[in-house]
Amino acid sequence: MYRIKLYNKIAKIGLSRLPAENYEIGEEMENADAILVRSAALHDVTFDKSLRAIARAGAGVNNIPIDRCTEEGICVFNTPGANANAVKELAICALLLASRNVVGAIDWAKGLEGNEDAPAAVEKGKSAFVGPEIMGKTLGIVGFGGAIGKKVAVAANALGMSVVGYDPFASDAVVAELGDTVRRVTELSDLYEASDYISLHVPATPDTKGMINADAIAKMRDGVRILNLSRAALVDDSAILPALEEGKVAVYVTDFPNGEVIGKKGVVAIPHLGASTPESEDNCAVMAVDEVRDYLECGNVRNSVNLPNLVKECAGEWRITVIHEEGFDAVEAIKSLGITVNDAQTAFRKGIAYTIADTDADASAALTLGENAAVKRVVVL
């Protein structure tokens, strides 16, 4: 019986994919085999020794202690692309909100409640909320090669915008798929100089934290409009607020507002609605559950953020999985225990390796590999 601990509400359509005869699911679960989580912070959580996997029903994993999980032999999954359409739609909404001052206009109109002269006041006051159209303007997408960035590029282009993209990690397949939709640049400064609007679609990493800072803003066009539906840490608040006051930045739309920016001039604060659609929550739950189940039952790794992905068809009665450091030959170590290996594969990622070995022999002796300092975790299925 596998034990699944929930740290947030996970859509029922996902949980229903875990057979009741094989899985216990609950928020107070002890000795869990896996955790399903959305936004709950796990950095201060002490994980059970039994814990083998954490699946985040969403793309970002900044709420999970990735390095510690790797050291403890815990595979961390996310669900890339599952909420991409929801975020894309909000990005298009953000483009329009950044242009037309719809939020300010609606707030102003509320002040006319009960006013018999409201129609005349509307006609007189609407000029204060004039804003530009997006058609014919240039959108710069930082991270155009990801699941969300790609969709935003296609949608913006269909709305008549020119799209400039920066993404050193974009695959050749994505670049070929987008074709002339995106004019690719290799320097962020080129994107900044060319864009009327800039939309961020990158994860929060040491390299991207505070990437929208005073130096970056200085390279942008006057009156640029910036959209941040990715992570709060990408934008330096101490740089964006003065730029808004001075008019260098016309509007800043953020899905990650805080007390520093809410209510400030030019800020459109959205309360983290990017993936808040029933379709997105269902998609993320289904993907997260399927990843966890395939890993627990078969040892297959799909969409891991800390282990190399490795999917292998069974070729024996027993399966041995080993998370270990590069340089440790897990297959030879298994054979040295007198276990005949039918077939094995090893994948590597940034100093960490993952080995799957299938055998028809009793593989229980392989558990002793866990005594080696180079081995993070060994499981026999």
What structural keywords apply?
single chain, alpha/beta, 381 residues, Rossmann fold, 5-stranded parallel beta sheet, 16 strands
* Annotated CATH architecture of the largest domain: 3-Layer(aba) Sandwich
In whole angstroms, the N-to-C terminal distance is 13 Å
Domain count: the total is 3
For the largest beta-sheet, the strand count, sense and barrel status come to:
7 strands, parallel
Describe the protein.
The protein contains 12 helices and 16 strands. The chain has 381 residues and is of the alpha/beta class. The protein folds into 3 domains: 1-82 and 277-305, NAD(P)-binding Rossmann-like Domain (Rossmann fold, 3-Layer(aba) Sandwich), CATH 3.40.50.720; 84-269, 3-Layer(aba) Sandwich (Rossmann fold), CATH 3.40.50; 308-381, Alpha-Beta Plaits (2-Layer Sandwich). The chain has a 7-stranded parallel β-sheet, with helices on both faces. Strands 2-1-3-4-5 form a 5-stranded parallel β-sheet. α3 packs across α6 (147-158). The longest helix has 21 residues, at 278-298. The mean pLDDT is 96.
